[in-house]
């Protein structure tokens, strides 16, 4: 079986979506041109667990032009664009993805990707990489059984020993993989793509900032002006969301944090800062962006105004206590696509977007192509770097010179020129002798 998608007849529409993304991803297209000439990934098999979107398709095509065989599966059960999956399948990509997978189907997809015995894993959230490690260490939970159902005859226990390395796209995944390494259990090198400046400074801040609000507005068609918006977490994602809320006319933007430095940054950036327990009684719209569990608890939800809207911009659906909400709700009904109304025991109603999953990919299309251009340029260069360099086990940042290369390509594609240091200036900032 080379693919499993929702409807292969959607391929024509998918090709149009991919074409539009390619038009807006000039950096990755320039890397593709070089990859076609040099074929740096010839003979390499890549198992990729990424959001199956039009931008991901541009990355997959680029890797393929570089000589790689790619098996693509989702990194979230609700983020797949079925038209794009169909288009890739029709092109011959080994893709196993459709929107609305249940847990078994999701891990069946991971098993499908691993059945190709990859040389490189490419991840967004670390489910694929974590699965490889669980298999290597002999775990036997339900997810492992689901993986085995589609993995074929491959020896899953020995799979990690032949993998050259992996990449990780997002903050949540990097945290998981650093924890794995800290415990002495990481089995192969990982390049933390998320730690490249041309990824997190732009993707996390501008990409998530805009696409989160895109998802909220598509799901609700609400007016942001005049609302009180509460953003949980002030990392780069939270900063982007809070800044866009202010730009959309929110009456108040409140930030909740556990990190004193980030809380202070939020204050100096002009936002109110307070505990979530206080903010719960004030907010109209709540958006989580922390990567942690039950940041908005059931107790917080019960304190909220009638009509409060809940959305999550973190990778996993654990930041809002959806289980607790489901448990105590008197009733639940779908009001609009991806918008559920819950009646609470106190008679109030709250509205949850996208089951508490990634709002920008469930209710919208994810990040704009222009910002994913840099993120996926880093992914392509990371795959090439793993092939050309033998790394020891660890979690690495992509070398700064590749980060700079991506930035230069992006500026060039935008028609922007910058200054260069003179020889005198270069000597001055690299010397200890020169001073007053």
Automatic annotation (TrEMBL):
Q: Show the InterPro entries listed in the entry.
A: Adenosylhomocyst_ase-like_sf (IPR042172), Adenosylhomocysteinase-like (IPR000043), Ado_hCys_hydrolase_NAD-bd (IPR015878), NAD(P)-bd_dom_sf (IPR036291), S-Ado-L-homoCys_hydrolase_CS (IPR020082)
The record's GO molecular-function terms, alphabetically, read: adenosylhomocysteinase activity
Name the gene for this chain.
Answer: ahcY
Please provide the Gene Ontology terms (biological process) for this protein.
Answer: L-homocysteine biosynthetic process; one-carbon metabolic process; S-adenosylmethionine cycle
Q: What are the entry keywords?
A: Cytoplasm, Hydrolase, NAD, One-carbon metabolism
- Where, in this chain's numbering, is NAD(+) bound? 170-172, 204, 233-240, 257, 313-315, 360, 367
The Swiss-Prot or TrEMBL record lists the needed cofactor(s) as: NAD(+)
A Pfam family assignment: AdoHcyase_NAD
| Keyword Kinase found | no
| Compartment list | Cytoplasm
The protein's name is Adenosylhomocysteinase
- Report the NCBIfam families cross-referenced here: ahcY, PRK05476.2-3
**EC number(s) from the headed UniProt entry:** 3.13.2.1
Residues reported to bind substrate: 53, 124, 169, 199, 203
Q: Name one GO cellular component term.
A: cytosol
Family note: Belongs to the adenosylhomocysteinase family.
State the species of origin.
Thermoproteus tenax (strain ATCC 35583 / DSM 2078 / JCM 9277 / NBRC 100435 / Kra 1)
Q: How is the cofactor bound?
A: Binds 1 NAD(+) per subunit.
The task this protein performs is described as: May play a key role in the regulation of the intracellular concentration of adenosylhomocysteine.
């Amino acid at each position: 079986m080379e693919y499993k998608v929702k409807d292969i007849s959607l391929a024509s529409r998918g090709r149009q979506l991919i074409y539009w993304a390619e038009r807006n991803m000039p950096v990755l297209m320039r890397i593709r041109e070089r990859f076609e000439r040099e074929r740096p990934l010839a003979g390499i098999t890549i198992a990729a667990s990424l959001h199956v979107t039009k931008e991901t398709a541009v990355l997959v095509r680029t890797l393929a032009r570089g000589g790689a065989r790619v098996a693509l599966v989702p990194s979230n059960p609700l983020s797949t664009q079925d038209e794009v999956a169909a288009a890739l399948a029709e092109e011959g990509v080994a893709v196993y993805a459709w929107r609305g997978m249940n847990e078994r189907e999701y891990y069946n997809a991971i098993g499908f990707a691993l059945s190709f015995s990859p040389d490189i894993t490419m991840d967004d959230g670390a489910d694929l990489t974590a699965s490889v490690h669980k298999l290597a260490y002999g775990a036997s939970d339900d997810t492992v059984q689901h993986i085995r159902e589609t993995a074929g005859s491959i020896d899953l226990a020995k799979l990690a020993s032949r993998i050259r390395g992996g990449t990780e796209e997002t903050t949540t995944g990097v945290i998981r993989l650093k924890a794995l390494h800290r415990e002495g259990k990481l089995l192969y090198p990982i390049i933390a793509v998320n730690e490249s400046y041309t990824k997190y400074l732009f993707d996390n801040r501008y990409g998530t900032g805009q696409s989160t609000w895109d998802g909220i507005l598509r799901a609700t068609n609400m007016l942001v002006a005049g609302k009180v918006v509460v953003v949980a977490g002030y990392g780069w994602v939270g900063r982007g969301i809070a800044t866009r809320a202010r730009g959309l006319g929110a009456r108040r933007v409140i930030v909740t944090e556990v990190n004193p430095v980030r809380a202070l940054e939020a204050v100096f950036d002009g936002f109110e800062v307070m505990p979530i327990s206080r903010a719960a009684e004030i907010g109209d719209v709540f958006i989580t962006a922390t990567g942690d569990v039950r940041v908005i608890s059931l107790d917080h939800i019960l304190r909220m105004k009638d009509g409060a809207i809940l959305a999550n911009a973190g990778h996993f659906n654990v930041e809002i206590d959806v289980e607790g909400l489901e448990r105590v709700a008197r009733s639940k009904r779908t009001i609009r696509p991806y918008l559920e109304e819950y009646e609470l025991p106190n008679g109030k109603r709250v509205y949850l977007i996208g089951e508490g999953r990634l709002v920008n990919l469930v209710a919208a299309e994810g990040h704009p192509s222009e910002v994913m251009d840099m993120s996926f340029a880093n992914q392509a260069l990371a795959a090439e770097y793993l092939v050309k360099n033998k790394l020891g086990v660890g979690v690495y940042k992509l070398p700064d010179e590749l980060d700079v290369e991506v930035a230069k390509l992006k500026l060039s594609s935008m028609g922007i020129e910058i200054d260069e240091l003179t020889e005198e200036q270069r000597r001055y900032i690299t010397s200890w002798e020169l001073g007053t």
